[in-house]
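Protocol step 4 of 6: structure prediction from sequence.
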Amino acid sequence: MTDATLSPGKHGAPGTPGASGTSPEASYQAPQGTWHELRRRPVFLLTGGCALLLLLLAAAPGLFAGWFGHGDPTVCELDHSAEGPAPGHPFGYDVQGCDLYANVIHGAGASLGVGLLATGLGLAVALVLGCLAGMAGRIVDSVIARITDVFLGFPFLLGAIVVLNSFTTRDVPTVAGVLALFGWPTMTRVVRASVRSVREADYVVMARSLGASQWHIVRRHVLPNALTPVLVLATITVGGVIVAEAALTFLGVGLQPPSISRGLQLAGAQNSFQTHPHLLIFPGLFLSFTVFVLITFGDTVRDALDPRGR
């Protein structure tokens, strides 16, 4: 949708708000043809289906864990410690004799939980600060920009390691909160840029001239335009956060038992990879598949929404 669609025509031409009586209240419309464009992309349909499957896997792992063996990741038999794939146990056993397939399936919940929660928290902060920076004036914009620069100056993983080391208990909300602490600045910049590109549009100027409040303008006109690019970025960010959680857990500063996560599984396999490669291969493949699906899904949506890519 272009600004010209919403601005009054010079001579009251049909189709303009001045001629048809269309109120600037309805100035924002979703990009026409976007959904149709996405449905025509096989990659979007494939990755979207896989993403839904991963969400179902995380929400109800019991539906899948029982396909082979007993499906309980906490039932362990030391007699089968680190044994390879066997009938009823296609992924084999871990070093404690627990079914590796059940652990990999149940590990999806913690990995996706951290990814979605951290990204959601970062997105909420980005929407608030980005809208303030884009709408509140130069002083507020400068203050928020300097705070953003400070956080961007910290190396992501190093900052997370320092903060997480101060916690004695590291569960999903704790790890997600720390990752969100260092993940919001990039999304804030995207929201700010989108808000600044929209705030001087004709339909926003019209709404302001008709006496609409600042909150009404932000809620009705600015946010719908700013959400699209940042939601695409958030979809891609989930995959990056999952990798960061696995890396932090592998280094010993992420999730702790009794949590079940891909990072813990990879950490437990590092000392026996050469003799028992299945301990690293299967969790690693599932982790790579999850990240690949989420990032590819976000890239496909971004390409469809970018008019230069059509």
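Step 5 (inspection) to follow. The longest helix spans residues 214-250.
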